[in-house]
Amino acid sequence: MTIVTDTRPCSIDVVLGARSYPVSIGQGLLSDSRHWRHALRGRHVLVISNHTVAPLYLDRVLAGLEGLQASSFLLDDGEAHKTFANVGNALNALAQLGATRDACIIALGGGVVGDLAGFTAACWMRGIDFIQMPTTLLAMVDSSVGGKTGVNLPAGKNLVGAFHQPRAVIADIDTLATLPQREYCAGLAEVVKGAAIGDVEFFSWLEQHADALAARDTALLIEAIARKVRYKAGVVARDETEQGERALLNLGHSFGHALETAGKYTALLHGEGVAIGMLLAARLSERLGMSAAADTARLQRLLERLALPTAIPPGMQPQALLALMRLDKKNLAGTLRLILWRGIGRAEIVSGVNEADVLAVLEPA
Ligand SMILES: NC(=O)c1ccc[n+]([C@@H]2O[C@H](COP(=O)([O-])OP(=O)(O)OC[C@H]3O[C@@H](n4cnc5c(N)ncnc54)[C@H](O)[C@@H]3O)[C@@H](O)[C@H]2O)c1
Ligand SMILES: O=C(O)C(=O)C[C@@H](O)[C@H](O)[C@H](O)COP(=O)(O)O
Ligand SMILES: [Zn+2]
């Protein structure tokens, strides 16, 4: 067993030419504005957060904005509020602030806040700066990195959006102290996803340390965040706008997004949908002769040890889930295009997947 004890801050670059940016991971980063204030170019700053996170951490950020014209815009909490209407409300807050083109939005919160704030930044005056300050594990390891921004429609997840990269990502792991355990575990699902797609050694490392990670060991957590961010940064640098390889980061998401939508964004957290979705993708891959049952079993065991759900919640109908999957953004020419699995560390984009095979894995066992 490898022993991990290093808790020093670290920084990982997302390399995208003139739009490159650092992802800083460590403790005490929000309170010490020397870590992020240099990324602000103009005078106007709008901090977008929500009614749960703002009472906990907004004062730390506002303290670092002294001397600037800053205000905040708060969302109600939850995935159901990642809407077009709220982008409109946030844009109005920018107008009220008198934000010029050198203004900056700071996204302080989880993936919902980050996706919506990033999209708002992409829209205001056709694009202004934004900084991601993720406060959930999921946002630290995934949504704050890579520039996918957007909102949901009643018809499905993330159907409207833009690629718009942040100027910096500041992941202050002190904020995780207040994160509920269920949300923490949902973030671990996106860590497992990275390993399942592209890093067999990382997958074994997660198996080795699953219990300590679930118990939030600080040094292991920093290492896990850094490894996942490094992996994602590499994929994004090679394929920023998902012309190819980046689609692999969607392992489990065609199923997962359908599950989240079917649950009206309240039954399952995003990471939970991804956990179940990865297993369904693994079972479908097995059915198509692409992967072995032993790999599916290893994936299921790891997810269970991280307290993640592995079964479709009762009452969700296979046909209804399939209908939602038909609207997934990866599909082309009216056929299903899914990310399937060749076993631990290897995923693949597969076009023209037969709907009968998908239905077979959606049926209750
Ligand atoms: N853009 C991307 O690449 C990308 C990647 C993955 C997920 N996503 C999106 O991210 C969203 C999921 O993000 P999430 O899991 O962070 O959910 P979330 O933003 O809803 O946050 C989860 C919950 O934790 C609360 N919270 C946040 N920080 C907290 C803290 N420090 N202490 C206490 N409570 C805190 C929030 O108020 C919320 O109730 C989904 O909309 C998903 O589609 C986007
Ligand atoms: O960054 C990516 O690329 C991802 O696919 C990361 C996913 O974990 C994330 O949930 C993303 O929002 C899904 O994107 P979408 O294009 O399927 O909406
Ligand atoms: Zn995701």
UniProtKB/TrEMBL annotation:
<dbReference type="GO" id="GO:0046872">
    <property type="term" value="F:metal ion binding"/>
</dbReference>
<keyword id="KW-0028">Amino-acid biosynthesis</keyword>
<keyword id="KW-0547">Nucleotide-binding</keyword>
<keyword id="KW-0057">Aromatic amino acid biosynthesis</keyword>
<dbReference type="GO" id="GO:0009423">
    <property type="term" value="P:chorismate biosynthetic process"/>
</dbReference>
<comment type="similarity">
    <text>Belongs to the sugar phosphate cyclases superfamily. Dehydroquinate synthase family.</text>
</comment>
<dbReference type="InterPro" id="IPR050071">
    <property type="entry name" value="Dehydroquinate_synthase"/>
</dbReference>
<feature type="binding site">
    <location>
        <begin position="77"/>
        <end position="82"/>
    </location>
    <ligand>
        <name>NAD(+)</name>
    </ligand>
</feature>
<dbReference type="InterPro" id="IPR056179">
    <property type="entry name" value="DHQS_C"/>
</dbReference>
<comment type="function">
    <text>Catalyzes the conversion of 3-deoxy-D-arabino-heptulosonate 7-phosphate (DAHP) to dehydroquinate (DHQ).</text>
</comment>
<dbReference type="InterPro" id="IPR016037">
    <property type="entry name" value="DHQ_synth_AroB"/>
</dbReference>
<keyword id="KW-0862">Zinc</keyword>
<keyword id="KW-0456">Lyase</keyword>
<feature type="domain" description="3-dehydroquinate synthase C-terminal">
    <location>
        <begin position="187"/>
        <end position="331"/>
    </location>
</feature>
<feature type="binding site">
    <location>
        <begin position="111"/>
        <end position="115"/>
    </location>
    <ligand>
        <name>NAD(+)</name>
    </ligand>
</feature>
<feature type="binding site">
    <location>
        <position position="270"/>
    </location>
    <ligand>
        <name>Zn(2+)</name>
    </ligand>
</feature>
<dbReference type="InterPro" id="IPR030963">
    <property type="entry name" value="DHQ_synth_fam"/>
</dbReference>
<keyword id="KW-0963">Cytoplasm</keyword>
<keyword id="KW-0479">Metal-binding</keyword>
<feature type="binding site">
    <location>
        <position position="148"/>
    </location>
    <ligand>
        <name>NAD(+)</name>
    </ligand>
</feature>
<protein>
    <recommendedName>
        <fullName>3-dehydroquinate synthase</fullName>
        <ecNumber>4.2.3.4</ecNumber>
    </recommendedName>
</protein>
<dbReference type="Pfam" id="PF01761">
    <property type="entry name" value="DHQ_synthase"/>
</dbReference>
<keyword id="KW-0520">NAD</keyword>
<feature type="binding site">
    <location>
        <begin position="135"/>
        <end position="136"/>
    </location>
    <ligand>
        <name>NAD(+)</name>
    </ligand>
</feature>
<dbReference type="InterPro" id="IPR030960">
    <property type="entry name" value="DHQS/DOIS_N"/>
</dbReference>
<comment type="pathway">
    <text>Metabolic intermediate biosynthesis; chorismate biosynthesis; chorismate from D-erythrose 4-phosphate and phosphoenolpyruvate: step 2/7.</text>
</comment>
<feature type="binding site">
    <location>
        <position position="157"/>
    </location>
    <ligand>
        <name>NAD(+)</name>
    </ligand>
</feature>
<dbReference type="GO" id="GO:0003856">
    <property type="term" value="F:3-dehydroquinate synthase activity"/>
</dbReference>
<keyword id="KW-0170">Cobalt</keyword>
<dbReference type="Pfam" id="PF24621">
    <property type="entry name" value="DHQS_C"/>
</dbReference>
<feature type="domain" description="3-dehydroquinate synthase N-terminal">
    <location>
        <begin position="74"/>
        <end position="184"/>
    </location>
</feature>
<feature type="binding site">
    <location>
        <begin position="175"/>
        <end position="178"/>
    </location>
    <ligand>
        <name>NAD(+)</name>
    </ligand>
</feature>
<dbReference type="GO" id="GO:0000166">
    <property type="term" value="F:nucleotide binding"/>
</dbReference>
<dbReference type="GO" id="GO:0008652">
    <property type="term" value="P:amino acid biosynthetic process"/>
</dbReference>
<dbReference type="GO" id="GO:0009073">
    <property type="term" value="P:aromatic amino acid family biosynthetic process"/>
</dbReference>
<feature type="binding site">
    <location>
        <position position="253"/>
    </location>
    <ligand>
        <name>Zn(2+)</name>
    </ligand>
</feature>
<dbReference type="GO" id="GO:0005737">
    <property type="term" value="C:cytoplasm"/>
</dbReference>
<feature type="binding site">
    <location>
        <position position="190"/>
    </location>
    <ligand>
        <name>Zn(2+)</name>
    </ligand>
</feature>
